[in-house]
Amino acid sequence: MTATIKKNGLGMGRIESSRRRVLAGSLALAAGAFPTPAIVQTRRKVKMAYGVPTIDSADGGFFNSIPMGAGFYADEGLEVEILTLNGAGAAINMLATGQCEFTTHGAAGLLAGVGQGVPFRAFIVQVPDNFYSIGVDAESGIKRIEDLKGKTIGVPALGGSPFVLIKAVIRQLGWDPNKDVTYQAVGVGLPAYDALKRDRVQAILAWDAPFATYTANGANLRLFQPNPLPQVGFTHSTNVALSVLEKEPALVASMTRALLRSLIFMAAAPQEELSRLHFKIYPTSRSPGLSDEQLSKVEKMRMAARLANMRFDKRVFSREERLGDETDARIAIGRDLLFEGGEIKEAAPIERYFTRQFLGEVDKIDFAAEIARARAFKA
Fold first, then answer.
1. Which fold has domain 19-130+233-375?
2. DSSP 271
3. Strands 152-155 and 182-185
4. Which of 57, 225, 280, 364 has the most CB atoms at less than 10 Å from its CB?
5. Around Cβ 203, how many Cβ atoms within 10 Å?
């Protein structure tokens, strides 16, 4: 499966965010945008490790800028610190060593982590559809995925969800992932695109939003989604240490409610207001070289790419599917891909990876009220 992305000529930077500014900004915004309780209670502080080193756009707002800025974490009595790390593997290591309670990243990292014996489990699936592709210069001689044999593929990090997934896909092609291609860590920002332009790598593995950024910077790309990627679900999840799940189920239920409301908010709020909210929470993530108009165009491109994979029509508006859920069959596709590719040692039962214990919280949410509130939102 291929697609062509054409040039657009806008720029977008990638800048590390300050955790202190995130927390201070989120609390201040939440207090200004929504009613404050008469009695301020001490909030439970928790840490969530994110498997990407930057938070640079509203397309990931469903776990950061939205629940922080719209007050959903605060409503649950939570103060959430997000730790930005280089790869899902690094995030999982933080959880395994007791340095955080939660992780959020591509679910391939969860599948691999459970396979390595890390005691944690997904409790909400925020991005259900596959958002990974392999991109090459459309003007290069690489016309088919098979043309990548012997080439160098740029990956976000030499570990984590994308790296696990690409190695499994390479095995599906009948190749040796450790001999027939070479990998180079290039991140997911503009340096990755620069590596492709300069032919230091001949392809890039990334997800929807980074490819939108590369397009905004003039990229003309051909995207491959070799089988079985189009059928893989369970793409991005938020996960909890089993010790926390067992000892503090009320905490996990609180996180679930906040994250479910954030998904509804992302589905219904004006996209430009979500972008404004994001840059209020993360002011240093905005590229200083962009005008407001340029930034708005880039944000729209990234958001459109992400929304295409979130199934909000069925999960929020028609409610044909339960928000936050994923089917066993789609989880099994990803699990079996990694198992057959040798990335995990066993194809464990689905309940080892994902619990629906807290998804009943969705039935306590007034969808109509939340949608109306989101549509009226002004950052």
1. D-Maltodextrin-Binding Protein; domain 2 (3.40.190)
2. H
3. parallel
4. 57
5. 26
